[in-house]
Amino acid sequence: MTTLSRPIKCYNPLRFGYEKDNVFKPLWPFGPEGWRKHSEEEGPEFKQKSAVSVLEMVMNMSGFDSRRLVDELRDILPIVKEAYPESGLHNCDDEEVIKSFAADGCVFILVVFSILGVELGFPEQHALLGKGQVREGIEKWLRSIFYVGNQIPLYVVEKLIKSLKHLGDLWEKIKDSQPSGILEKTLFRFMTIDPSQVSKPVDVMECLRSVILGPQSSQLCIWVVGRSDIEGKTIPTKSASALSRCGYVFKPLPDEFGSRAIKCEHQWGKVAVYLPCIEVFSAAWLELMFTSVRNYEFLHHGPIFQLESTHYFNLLSTLIRSLDDVKVLESGGVLGGVDLDSLPRILQPFYKPPPFDPLHLKEIRSYNPRLAVFWNFKGRIITSLVVCNILLTLQLASLQTGYTILGNYKHH
Question: pTM for the full model?
């Protein structure tokens, strides 16, 4: 039996008083925790019956027996229970847990497929998954999928896709998807994880966090924790526009890299800061991403699980304080898309004024802005002297050539 390699669990944050009960009401609850603990505006019975109905339709399309599916899910039940806190599913009836995961897991998979542009094969008038239904309510579905504690474990997703032929056929189609935006890219990555991969995310929230952070083995990683001094003087971090006036330039990292790959380089007297590119397709979705990942990290924070994404958001909130900062990062290719004017507002909750010292880049803390201006000025002087020297050399060479030609002409 496979076991979890990391202490990351599909917590229900409401149980720990992390959020108020009314936050959950507009969302679709995934899994037995949601059905048992929360009510919806349509009522929990409506949600449960709808999910069971969807599962039955998929099993009919797949030619699969419900009893057989329950037996296959029972094989992974121990590891699914391990993905929840001790107070979660361990005292629940196994049959109830299996059936609820089968039904809601099926809805989860189909909703994600629809978000990624796959036609589900359901009747057009189907109330939940008919043509255009998911896209029409995509805001609600995304908030439900990325609500901390409302996740379906990856083990359930993999087992359902492998067991039910219709889901397997749809899974083949998402390989041609071209997701846009970090949330859709996260869903695509989550659904296309190689089953043989050793280290896999437990749920979609861990997958989102890994997308933001980027590769663990990145050789460009230069994050440091704590304060850094130069000759005993602490260097403050300023906004992007203020740093730009001091000789800093901002450039985007390649798409495959995240916040762990942020780096700085000296380039012709300037300090080039490389940051992950943020493509904004919706201000609401971006705000959802920031808030969800922050809540997820706080809930799982410990010796092994650090607040890396939260510190990255702290850095962004320090760099982006006004529309001038947005324009500087946009001109450098770090920001793109729509609703960029809303970024200072979205990042405001992550900003903490001095003396709070967020996680900084080693190079940013290592170069005094005044020193950067000096090097910028010095670089321009050196460049000017080099150009003048080259021009003078060319002029002397042309004069020498002219005198040589004139001498030969008089000689003849």
Answer: 0.78
